[in-house]
């Protein structure tokens, strides 16, 4: 009798241990590994059913934890898990990773985007904290011949495609999306050899003095031309390399190339103009970026002033870390330009606290210069820059009317297609010679 009781107790303990391993402690949903196990069985035996995968993610969840604390963040996750249980029937649910919840379920009904959006809005409205943004990625009518991790990755791929999109909350996996990801993986795989083979080409877009209409500077921009002649758009590789960290190496490559160009002009006693180089957000936070850039300038034996550093407006939101880095750059001898002013947060604190010598007005401001309100905004931005003893550059100038208007406003420099598109090095040299 006692042995039978002991067996029952051990069986119960084993069941409790298995449940603890299988279920996420906070949400009660399956852990990822246990979900993979049950999902394989689920799809294997229900061969006549059509399956869908839905992944739910909260935008900027780290901000929620930072603002409200982890306790409130956990409360939000529990709430979302319960809401997910309510809306996702006939399937398995898992806390996939962090704040990502994923469900695999069978249904003969086609997914309705409008209904999904209504459900998302209702969940957000009733959440424990206000203004949460929920993103949903869907892989509909899944190919059950694929492995479960790949099936889940396809839903995640759809969600990631809209993670930065404020207007869209629901996305479906498509073959085009898959092809895009494959192309991105190929670009990442090719990056190292592209650097070694110098496939990244530096182009130069001149900056013109608004009064004399002579070249007084330039901005270095990068293009990717593969050895077979194929051109890859910066819009395809720059965001990718920013997200995976490779942009740090690309930034340094461009900076070194520009320094070499300036060195050759100086050694040949040719006229030189400052050529500004972009420093991405990832590079700003790279541990020894200042030391590395100072070393390059010293090795080339060129003046620091001939290679100004451009920092985008969004990357320079004031913080102690940014203040430290910008102070180090200025103390080393670099001049700093704030790029894309007016395109993002327009942080006046950054203009006040950080040592910029030049502010560049984004094309989005210049595009509306022919309108009354747009013209007033540009004039105020120019006056603000001058009031802080900064030079002002207008980017994206495309017409004589825009140029004349900026001249009336006493803008200092103009950059844009009205004067010149970005040029190959040899064409830029011809411009300088002319």
Short characterization:
With 434 residues, this protein is α/β, with parallel strands linked by helices. It has helices at residues 2-22, 32-45, 61-68, 70-87, 113-125, 148-160, 175-196, 234-244, 247-267, 281-284, 289-300, 320-332, 348-353, 363-366, 372-387, 400-408, 425-433; strands at 51-58, 91-97, 100-106, 134-139, 170-172, 200-209, 215-225, 231-232, 275-279, 309-312, 336-341, 356-361, 391-395, 413-415. The longest helix has 22 residues, at 175-196.
Describe this structure in words.
The chain is of the alpha/beta class. It contains 17 helices and 14 strands. The strands form two sheets. Strands 6-7-9-10-11-12-13-14 form an eight-stranded mixed β-barrel, surrounded by four helices. It has a five-stranded mixed beta sheet with strand order 2-3-1-4-5, sandwiched between helices. Strand 11 (336-341), helix 13 and strand 12 (356-361) form a beta-alpha-beta unit. Helix 3 (61-68) packs across helix 4 and helix 9 runs parallel beside helix 11 (289-300). The protein is elongated, with a radius of gyration of 28 Å. The protein starts with a helix and ends with a helix.
